[in-house]
Structure formats: structure tokens, C-alpha cells
Automatic annotation (TrEMBL), chain A:
<comment type="similarity">
    <text>Belongs to the CBF/MAK21 family.</text>
</comment>
<dbReference type="GO" id="GO:0032040">
    <property type="term" value="C:small-subunit processome"/>
</dbReference>
<protein>
    <recommendedName>
        <fullName>CCAAT-binding factor domain-containing protein</fullName>
    </recommendedName>
</protein>
<dbReference type="GO" id="GO:0030692">
    <property type="term" value="C:Noc4p-Nop14p complex"/>
</dbReference>
<feature type="domain" description="CCAAT-binding factor">
    <location>
        <begin position="313"/>
        <end position="470"/>
    </location>
</feature>
<dbReference type="InterPro" id="IPR005612">
    <property type="entry name" value="CCAAT-binding_factor"/>
</dbReference>
<dbReference type="InterPro" id="IPR027193">
    <property type="entry name" value="Noc4"/>
</dbReference>
<dbReference type="GO" id="GO:0042254">
    <property type="term" value="P:ribosome biogenesis"/>
</dbReference>
<dbReference type="Pfam" id="PF03914">
    <property type="entry name" value="CBF"/>
</dbReference>
UniProtKB/TrEMBL annotation, chain B:
<feature type="region of interest" description="Disordered">
    <location>
        <begin position="270"/>
        <end position="399"/>
    </location>
</feature>
<feature type="compositionally biased region" description="Acidic residues">
    <location>
        <begin position="426"/>
        <end position="444"/>
    </location>
</feature>
<feature type="compositionally biased region" description="Acidic residues">
    <location>
        <begin position="203"/>
        <end position="219"/>
    </location>
</feature>
<feature type="compositionally biased region" description="Basic and acidic residues">
    <location>
        <begin position="299"/>
        <end position="332"/>
    </location>
</feature>
<keyword id="KW-0698">rRNA processing</keyword>
<keyword id="KW-0175">Coiled coil</keyword>
<feature type="compositionally biased region" description="Acidic residues">
    <location>
        <begin position="358"/>
        <end position="368"/>
    </location>
</feature>
<feature type="coiled-coil region">
    <location>
        <begin position="828"/>
        <end position="881"/>
    </location>
</feature>
<dbReference type="GO" id="GO:0032040">
    <property type="term" value="C:small-subunit processome"/>
</dbReference>
Amino acid sequence: MPAPVELSSSKKRKSSKNGAPSSKRRAVAEDNFTETLSTIQDLETQIAESRKHYNNIVTLISMMKVEDNAKEPELAAAVSLCRVFSRLIAAGNFIESNRAAENEKIIVAWLKERCLEYQRGLMAIIREADTTSQVTALTLAMRLVKERITHIPGAENNIWATLFKDIVEAVVEAQDGQDLQTEFVNKFAKEYEDVRYFTFTHLSEYADVRRSHEIIDSIIAILSACEEVPAADHEFETFFVPRENKSKQLNSASSHKKRAQEAWLAILRNDLSQPQRKSLLRIMVHHIEPWFSRPELLMDFLTDSYNAGGATSLLALSGLFYLIQEKNLDYPQFYSKLYSLLDADLLHSKHRSRFFRLLNTFLASTHLPAALVASFIKRLSRLAINAPPSAIVVIVPFMYNLFKSHPTCTFMMHRTIRDKDLAAEIEEHGMDDPFDAAETDPTRTNAIESSLWEIETLQSHYHPNVASIARIISEQFTKQHYNLEDFLDHTYQGMVQAELGTGERPLKKTPVVEYQIPKRIFTDRMLEEDGGVDSGPASFMRRLWDF
Amino acid sequence: MPPSQLKQLKASLRDSGVIGPQQSKKQKRQNARTGVAAQNRNQRNEALQAIRDRFNPFEIKAPKNRSKFDATTRDGSSTTAGGSRPGVTKSLGEERRRATLLKEMNSRHKVGGILDRRFGENDPTMTLEERAAERYARESQKKLRKESMFNLEDDEDDDFHFTHMGQPLTLDGANVDDFDADGLDGQGSDDEGLRKRKRVVEDDGENEDFIDYEEEGEAQPEKKKSKAEVMKEVIAKSKFHKHERQKAKEDDDDLRDELDQELPDLFEALRGMKAPPKKEPAKQDLSGVNPERALLMQEPEKNTEREYDQRLKQLTFDKRSAPTDRTKTAEEKAEEEAERLKKMEENRLKRMRGEKVSDDEEEEEDDKDSFFAGDESEEEDDAVAFGLPTTYQPRADMGVEDEDDFVIDDDLVETRSNVSLSLDGSDMEEEELSDEDDEPDVPEQEDELINGMTLPTSTTSTAVGISESATGKLAFTYPCPSDHEGFLEIIKDVATEDVPTVVQRIRALHHPRIKPGNKDKLGKFSEILVEHVAYMADETEQPSFAVIENLLRHIHSLAKSHAIHVATAFRARFREISNDRPLSLLPGDLVILTGVSTVFPTSDHFHAVSTPAHLCIARYLGQCNVTSLSDLATGTFAASLLVQYQSVSERYMPEFINYVLNALCNLAPAEPAKEIGLFPSRKTEKSFRLASSKKITPRKLQFKDVISSPANPEAEEELKLSLVNTLVSLLGSSSDLWSEKSAFIEIFAPAREVLQHLRQSFKNKAFVAARDTVQSTLDKINTGLAQSHLSRRPLLLHNHRPLAIKSAIPKFEENFNPDKHYDPDRERAEVNRLKKEFKREKKGAMRELRKDASFIAREKLREKKELDAEYEKKYRKLIAEIQSEEGRAANDYEREKRARQGKR
């Protein structure tokens, strides 16, 4: 029954006429453009009128200008072709019936071939053209998918496996495809559960082969954008193609998760660059692991990353912790490894607070050996001597909490030597730090015999607030516990702002001014008067610098 | 069944002995004589009252909440009192209302009337006799109490004498005043009229009283005490008073005589010179003159005496003049100055240790409280307690507000250094300038100090010549600019060298003493100057540091009076740095930071300007990226600034060590083979390693190295080597600074390795010149490390007294009384008490008002009834009258009729 379809599609035509071409109008020269537009219009109506004008399809396809490269496609032609094919599909012209005449069959085959040609053109546009064309072509292609599945019975699996696969690949491989990918994710993959399902399927197949870093980047972007993990009892309702017979696969959460897991695993197995690895580790806990019905599959990836050292290790820590906690993963020498992470760059890295949050969890147990905790404390205090104030501010309360839960370690702050001989020897020769900084095993560093001279030195830190925080270790331990979270995310900027405020505000109290106005600041003026000896304020600068 | 009421009454009367067997007459008489009768009467009255109470149980109201068991309550007093007597109180209240309210009611809408102010008239507790006696006593006291010593008339007014049998009652002549006796007799009769008038004015009321008394006294001849007794009493009283008065008078006279004699001396002391011996005043012989005239002559004398008295009083209250300070000798002045400087230094050290420099202790406590405020409330952010900003709200800056409370001492103002400000020796202006700064507290002689000093104009080498040549073109008056553009406009045509002169003139012209608004203007101007200093360093290719220095010194001197403005300007600059370019300092920023080191004390534990300055530099050193040699020079400059900042307080700066070691590693000719130490190493993108084959010598670094990198490679190498040299010497200075730190070894062990590496790589002949510095610094650090190793001891941080275990014993109140309030919060208890009192008072007042209203209503009703009754009576009377008249008329008529009939 062509009539109602005709009606509905003519409505669509109207809307698309108002929408798509108008945006294009500015791009092409005015008169030239209107001319082509009218030609396309004519061709389209002719096709709708009679079969004998089917050859117009070929003209339209050629008008799309996608033969050699699809840099500047004629979108109007593509849109009108989409309409033409939708109409034909809806009218049942693509269905071969056995009873049909020979010439009918030929026409159907011919039409199918043209349709394929058209699809290839669309894919080319998606791959190569500019963003707006890409998005339009994507929409057209998806429309075609929908039409074909709804109106051609039994074509579903075939279409998903062929046409949609092509689309997914094209989207992934598209040039400058960020916008296209977000469009794809937001409009289709996130919206419709079947689209998401098949996207996962195709992506996992696609990523099985080694791919370039850019492509993997875009795959990661698409995959990580699909955040909503269906719960086990999730009702799958929003489908791109309305269907009556509910296929079992599409309706079970586990199969969805399985597809996603496969896709992710394919990515993880692929050749990853260092930044990619880091970004994957960063989203590991919140975006990747929920998709995994068997998270232990991540183990290899995580342990590899953890062993890589540096920032990668820091990032792998949280994923690993998740596995240890949830899946009972046994990681031998976990604490030695953790101890080795405390290196010179740790306190200056931007993952500092993330690391300290985890470290706080790892060292929270009161059943840890005191020697081990002492090693961590001593190591951190060594690092603190070269740390920025924002890091010192974390370390000291953290130590305080450790001291509170491991009172044996408090010898590091207060140790009276009872042995008379030893005391005499120290009195005479001084003492070495018993702590062995080179030892990698935290239980054998002998840190518990050492003292925290570093923190004591930091009590005279130039920043008054840092100094007063460092002072807590020499005061009575009356507070039960410092909330580490309050100390974590401080920065230089925050500290400066705390001192200066964001806007001009009058000072509450008059600041003290140096009582003596120096005779010299930069120059040697009046030096003779002082007998040629340059002393007093700012003389240090004058000695080192010429102004 | 109990006996009847009558029987009970009789029994109780008998029991209490009110009625008993008749006493014999003899017995009665005896009783009356011994006073037993009176006693008996009293007893009887009491007994009767008790019986009346007992037989009228409704008179007594039982207490509302009678306690059931005596044992359960401690305060048994209320129960034993036996409740109140509503009847009695009611009637009392009624009576009082009748006495007050009713009177008011009756006198409403009435104007005028006589107020009875006689003593004791309204006091019902006094008997008539008592009243009379009291009045008389008052009257006589009044007479005795002489208001003025010199009011002569008062004394002899004896209008009123008690007489006895027509003879005046004289009290052995005691009532004759001595004073009257010696001079003024005979005048009495003459000036009587005058006197009378005066008296009438003075004490009307008393007279009235007195007269009243007389009348009453006559009207009431019946008294308990006989009149003789009363009079005796009165007389005795007045005698006593008179005696006392006389004594006082004598004392006064003595005193006066004494003073009279001393007066000349006093005047002498007052005038500060010996007065000529006073002429003996001409004796006034008044006996011969007309008494009135004599009186007139006497009058001025009285006046003088009064005046004299007043003077005397004033003199006694005058403050004694203190001896003036003598002028100080030069040594003393120097000593004082040294003392002052010492005090300043002490204050600085205090601030360095983070103690509060304030004279009053309370303030200190306050600050302490607020500083540790975070500790008290547990739910607060822990970090906030240390003055750190809360992460979600980076603006919170408790730390700042709490700590920067340094009050600028007035004697901070230093005059001596102001003098040296002058470049072009215009003495007058200079003096003005110095005047300005030593505001009220510095005494005047400071000026002498300035004048005495040789003005250092001759020694200012460069600027003097220039300014002398240029001053001719300079205007003498400049407006005070209100923004930096305005200032630039002003100095547009002025040579850079003359800017200080212009600044000086602006300061002189807008001296705060000239106009009240000038203080604000100068404050603004000081902000502009700060801006301008940075501007000069930023804009000009080769800034003139003589001028900048001079401006900075101007800023410094302005900062003493406008500290807040200057500090705000500096802080604004830091804010700009931290927001716009935290990791790329401009030359202007460096100059400003250098200025901070001289204008503000950088050793303070907390300072509103120094602390942000530290943070800015540290942030730069900690995070900057080195992309060019000038960056390295900037970093080196900043590092040396940090060392200068800490030259007094010797605080530890991790960023400094990190930066210096990193820079040295990056500048060293060869890369160190392994990781050195725990400082984070940052490789520069471009290599800045020393790579010279030619021999080069390090030079002193120049400020322009910061601005631009050298063009040719040779100069570049030279600069690199100079940088290395400077950085190494910075390491040396810092090792001196921090030699006392307990973690010296941990800090400088990496430094030693870096230096050793440097020494290794300086084997090349080209760097021979720098080798010495490296070696000497290395030696210094080595000795420091050895020292530190020797003095290293385990930490002993917790020598605190062990904390007492918190007591959990409940607070137990002995002798607890539930009626008492044991509120530990004084204020709250007080408030509650007041509230309760208020409530009670309010209730009472309302009750009273209600009762008043009902009383008034009652009275009105009564009045109305009375009026009605009166009206009714009148009406009836009239009716009766009319009726009787009618009746009579009728009778007449009848009679007439009958008579006529009879006639007929």
C-alpha cells in the first residue's frame, strides 16, 4: 500500500526541505545551488511518479560526488536518495517474491545494488567529509538501517552484521571524528540498547586486530562514554528498531555485559600508548570494571601496569585494590611494591592526593607490623624535606594518624637512650641515622630505630601554617584523628589565595613595617659614610647582583 | 460530741486567764503600782487575739500545697507559719486604697488646693506630741544650721523666743552669739526690714510649720508627756547642738587666721616673686559713721573674703607643677635611641617566633583563642584549624585574619633615615618631611636631632648633580594623582632622574597637616608609587635603580604612616602574580619582591605581605619551567631573594634547595650518572649545560640578565658559569643559615653529591675559575655535615607532663536544695532570675491594677447610690411638701366650702 507511506514520507520531505538544505544554502553559490536543488527535486518526484524513472537513482548517486573522494559531498542528493530508498523499501520494492516475474526480480536486484552503492557513498562521506556532512550521513545511514529492518522481514541479523558494522567502522575510522563519535554515542549508542549491544559486538571484533593509537583513542572514547551498566534485572525497552519477538540475547543484561567486556578486553589487549594506558587506568574503577562480569580478567593488565613504575603504578593501584578487596586477588609483596612507589617525584605529581587516599586505606589496618609502618613514616618524612607545602600539609596529619594507631612507632619522636655505653658513644661521636634508605623491603629498613628529624626541621618552615601543622607531632597527642580529606587537595594557588583573598579587601590590622629605612637597596649610595663596608638589610643581594 | 461554741469560748477564756476570780481592791492597787497591771493587760490582749483567731478559722488561709510529711522537706518554715490571712491583707489593701486612690479620685478634675507640707502631718504613726516635738527640734536646728558664715543677719533674728511667765528663756547666755557680741551690736534694729524680707524668701515653709505647731500645741493640751518634759528635752537638744556649732566655729576661725597669715607667702609662691610687704589696711572705725554706711563699707570686704575663699579652694585643687625634664646630653640620646632599637629588635624576634607583640594581655588571649578556634569544635574542617583554606571553599582565610594583628608602634617612625631621603638638599622640605613622620608621639627635640645632623646631600653622588641641573625646569606644585595614569601624566615631561624630586614635592605639598583630606590622598599616592616602581622595572629596558631605590625608600617612609595602603598595593601585585603569571615572574615583580625585603620584616612568623611574598617566590621556584637562560637568571635572583628573606629567621625552604640543586644539575657540563638524592629532578627541554672549551671566568650577575638572554654564545657561557658560581655560593649561604637544623644531613647530603659531581665535571681547564667556589662551598658543607653528625641525637619531643585522665565523676552538690538554682552559667542564671522577677512583678502589678479597678468601680457605685438616695430623698421631700401643700389647700378649700355652706 504505497499511499499512506507516500503521505508520511512527503511530510518528512517537507520537514527535511525546511531543515537540511537551508543550512547548506550559504555554502554554495546561491543561483548554482538552487539550480541543483531543483534538479534533485525534479529527479526525486519523477522516481516517485513512475518506475521508468528509476534510472534517476543512478544520476542522483553520481550527483553525490563521492566517487574519488568524499571531501565535498552533495548532501541534498544524499538526503533525497535516502527518501527515495526509504519510500521504495516501505513500498516493498526490495522484497523478492518467488512468484514475481523475471523482470521484477531484475529490478529488485538492480535496486539492491544501487542501494549498496548508495551505502558505500554514505560510508565514504562518514569517513572523509567535514563534521556536518559526517553527522548528516550518519543519520541517513542509521535511518536506512531502521527502514530496512522494519520493512524487510528476516533481514535483521543480516543488516546488523553488514550495514551497521560498516557504519561502526566508518565512525571509528572517521577523520576528525570527535564530534561524529559523540553524536553517535549520544544519539544512538546511549539512547538505544540494541545499538549499544551491536556497537560493542562490532568494536570487540574490530579491536581484536592491532590498530593505530588514534583509532584506539576513538574506540576508548566511544566505549567509556557508554557509562550506564544495566543492572541484572534491567528491563530492556528502548530499541532503535521496534521489534515484536524479543530475542533472548538483546534482553539479558549479562549478554550486554559480556559484549562490553569483550570489547574492553580487546582494547586492553591491543597495543596501548603510555597516555592511553594512564587514561584507561584512571577510568578503570568507575567505567570499566562495572562492565566486567569477571573482573579477574583485568588482573593481567593491572599487574602489568603496576609493575611499570611511576605514575602508571600509582594509577593501577586503585584498580588493583579493587581486585584485592572484591575478588580476593593475592598480590605478593604488595607493600614492598607500595613502598617503592614513594619516590622523589611522588609528592610533586598530580596524582598525589589520589595516592594518599589509597595509602590511607592500605595502612589503615592496625595489624600491620610496626616496622613496616615506621618505614613508611620515615620514608615520607625524608620526602617531605623536599616537598611543596601542599604535600607537607598532607604528610604530617597522615603520620599523626599512623602514630595514633601504631603507638610503637612513637619512638621515632621520642627516644631516651637507657643504655649508658651507647649514650656515651653517641655523646662522643654523634650518631648515624639507623634508617637504611636503600633497603627496598619496608620491614627491614630499621626505620623504627630512627627519628623524624626532618619533620622537626619543617617546624621552621617558611609558611606559618605548614610550620604549625608540623608542630603537631611534638605536641600532646590529644586529638583522636585528623580527617585526611581536609588536607588533601591544597595547592600553591589555594594557599596564596588564602593569604591574599580573591578581591581587594581592606586589611584588618595594620601590617608591621620595618622600622629602619635602609640606606641602600640596589646601589652603593653613601657607602663611604659607613666606611665602605656594605652591611645591613639587602646587602646580601648587593653582594651577589649588580643592578 | 464537742461542747457548744459558747462553752468552748468560756473554757478557753478561763484557760488563758482572761476571766478569772475577781481580784480584791487592794491587790488591784498593788498591781497598778508595780506595773503588773499593764503587763497583765498586754498578756490579756494577746490571749484574746489568739482566741479570736482560733474561733474564726476562716480568717486564716491554709497553705496551698501543704507537705504531707515533714520529713521529706527541709524548709519547714513555710508550713509552720500557718498560711496567710486573706481577710487582714484585704482590709489592709482596702484601707490603703482609700487613703491614696480614693483621694486621687476625689481630687480628680480639680485644680489648685493647699498642699499640707507640715512635718509629720501625714504620718499616722506619730502622736500629736511627737509631731510637735519634732517640729520644734527641726525649727531650732534650722536656725542653728547657718548656711553662710558671713550671713550676719541670720544670727540675731530672734523673733521668736520661748517665754516663761513673760520672761525670756535664756540658756545661761549660751544663745548669745560671740560673733554678734563683738562687732555688730546696735545695727540689728536698723537693718531689720532688709533682714525680714530675706528671711521670708529663704524659709517660708519652715515658718509655716512653726506657726502650725503653735496652734496645734495650743489646741491639744492633753498629752502623755508633760509640756515641761518636752521643753526640757528640746532645750537639752538645742544646747548640745549649739555647743557643737560653737566648737566648729572656733575651729574655722583658727583655720582662717592661719590662712590669713599664710596668704602673702601663697601669693608669693603663685607669682614666683616676692611681693612687697602689704600695707596695713586702714582700720575702719565704724563707731563714728552712720551705721548704714558702715554696712555698705562692710559689704565689699565680705565679697573679697568670699573671693578669697574661692581662690583658696581653687589653689588646693591645683596640680603641682612637676619639674621639667632637663635637656638630654648626646650620650643619653644615643642611649635612648639604642634602647629603642633594641626594643624594636626584640619585638621583631617575638614576631619571628610567632608570639604576639602587644602590650595588653587580653588581646593576646583573644588572638590565641581565635587562632585555635578550630580545635574546639570537632565538626569543623581539621585543616582550617591550621589556617589552611577549606578545599571546597578556597576563600576561607581564617589564618590571615587571626594572625596579622600587628599594631604599628608610633615610635616605629624613624626620623634619621628620612633625612637621608633627600636627594636635592632642599632643607626646608626635608624638615617638613621629617616632621610629618614623627607624628604626635615623638617629642619636639627630635627636630633638633635632625637639625644637628649634617644633611647628607653632599654625599649623594649621582643624583645630586642631575637634579641640580634639572630642578630649574621642574614645577614646584603638583597635584596629588589619584591613579597611576594620573601619575604618569604628571611625570610625562619629567626626566626619570627627577621623579624622586617630584614625589618629594607631592609629599610635601600634600602633607597631612596642611589639609585633613591629605592623609587619604597620600595613602592613595603611596599605592601609586608601588605600582610605579613595578612599572618602571617592567617598561624600561634598563631601569634606573638609583631612582627605583629612592622611590622604594619613599614608599618605605610613606609605609610608616600609611602601612595599610602600601601593604594593600603589594598584596594586589602578588594577587596579580598568582592569578596571571605564577610561573613567569616579570622584572617588575622581582623589584617588588626585593622591595618587600626592605620595607617589611620578612622574618615575621606571619606577615600580611611577607608571607604571600614567600609563597609567590616558592611557587615560582617549585614549579617554573626553564626555557631560557634568563629564566635561570630569574630563578637565581628569586633564590637569592629567599636567602635574604630568611637571613634573620633562618626558616627552611624546600623549594629553594630543590631549585638550586636542579639548576646546578642542569648547568653542569655533564649529566650526573645516577639519581642524586630525593629532590625531584626536572630536566630542561633545551640543554643549558656548560660546554666551553675556552677559558671563561665567572662575573657578578646583573639584573639585566633577568630581562634578556645574551646574544652570542660566548657571553652565554660566561653567564652560565656565573650562574653556577652564584648558585653554589647560595648553597654555601644557605648551609650557614640552616646549620642548626636537625635535618641538616638530610638536606645537604644531596647538595654535597651535586657539588662533588660539579667538581668532577669542572676538571676541564675552562672552568678553573669556578672551581674554587665549588671547592670552598663543598668544604663548608662537609664540615657542616660532620658537625651535624656529631650533634645528632635521637629526638626527644614528648617531654610533656602526662595528661590527666579525664574525670567522669558527676558533679555532686552537697546540701542540695531544690529551690535553689545551680546553674553553672552565671549569665544564664542571672537572666533567669531577672525573668522570674519580672514575671512576679508583672503579676503583682496586674493584680494590684485589677484590685484598683474594682475598688474604683465600687466607689463609683457607692457614690452613685448615694447620689440616687439623695435624689430620692429630695424627691420624696418635694412630693411630701407638695402633697402637704395640696392637702392644706384641700383642707382650706374644704374649710372654705364648709364655711360657705355654713354661711349659707
